[in-house]
Amino acid sequence: MLDGVILATCKALIDDAKLGCTDMVFKDLCIELLAKAKLVLTERQFEEFSNYVAGKLKEKIVLNPKTY
Question: CB neighbours of 35 closer than 8 A, spacing ≥ 6?
């Protein structure tokens, strides 16, 4: 159960950062969260989280194409 809470929290942090950070800060935060998540999530959860982050990065690119 705790694993699910950690995964949900990681996703919530990405969602909050996507809304409140500049592109450069958002990308840096994604890298930091992925590195930390690797230490606490199971392999399956980390893969799910990595895909989630990739999707959010793609959304950010679509919303702000000039910054990439």
Answer: none
Give burial (CB, 10 Å; 0-12/13-18/19+) of 11: middle
What is the domain count for the chain? 1
Helix (H), strand (E), coil (C) string for 6-37 = HHHHHHHHHHHHHHHCCHHHHHHHHHHHHHHH
Query: Rounded to two decimals, what is the model's pTM?
Result: 0.85
Confidence (pLDDT) at 66? 62
Residue 50 belongs to what domain range?
2-67
Quote the pLDDT of residue 1: 65
CB 2 within 8 A of CB 41: no
